[in-house]
Amino acid sequence: MLNSKLYKGFSLLEVVIALLIISITFLAYNQLIEQNLKSQELKQTFILESDKRLNLLTIYVSNPDIEQYEVRQILDINEISETKISTYRNFDEIKIDFITPDKSVYITIIK
Fold first, then answer.
1. pTM of the shown model
2. How far is residue 38's CA from residue 48's CA, in Å, rounded to a whole number?
3. What 3 state SS string does the chain have?
4. Angle of helix 68-75 relative to helix 12-62, nearest 10 degrees?
5. Is the pLDDT of residue 5 over 70?
6. Dihedral, 67, 71, 76, 79 alpha carbons, nearest 10
7. Residues of the chain with pLDDT > 70: what percent?
8. For residues 17 and 52, what is the distance between their CA atoms, to the nearest angstrom?
9. Looking at the domain assignment, is residue 1 inside a domain?
């Protein structure tokens, strides 16, 4: 009688529970991979945007009187607009908006 139980195998309930545990583990792992990929995409976007801002800031620091068409050519920018925010003695605080094919970004400089 003891030997007949060994040959019987797993019950249907045990198989279903095992498959359920495997599927839940797979779904959790899939979610982690998906979140990691989204995080990498956001990181890449942030890095590219930061690089554009730093490049633009470097250009304006090295040559504050640079023409807008030159900046457009260097950085592949569609449109640039400058807005004077405030003035203090001989200095102007200027907000520079630039539109790239991806999005609109701005920096603030003092000339």
1. 0.56
2. 16
3. CHHHHHHHCCCHHHHHHHHHHHHHHHHHHHHHHHHHHHHHHHHHHHHHHHHHHHHHHHHHHHCCCCCHHHHHHHHCCCEEEEEEEEEECCEEEEEEEEECCCCEEEEEEEC
4. 150
5. no
6. -50
7. 94
8. 53
9. no
Residue type, 101: P
pLDDT tens for each residue of 32-84: 999 999 999 999 988 988 888 888 888 888 887 888 888 888 777 778 888 88
Enclosing domain of residue 26:
11-110
Report if residue 63 sits inside a domain. Answer: yes
Q: Specify the number of domains making up the chain.
A: 1
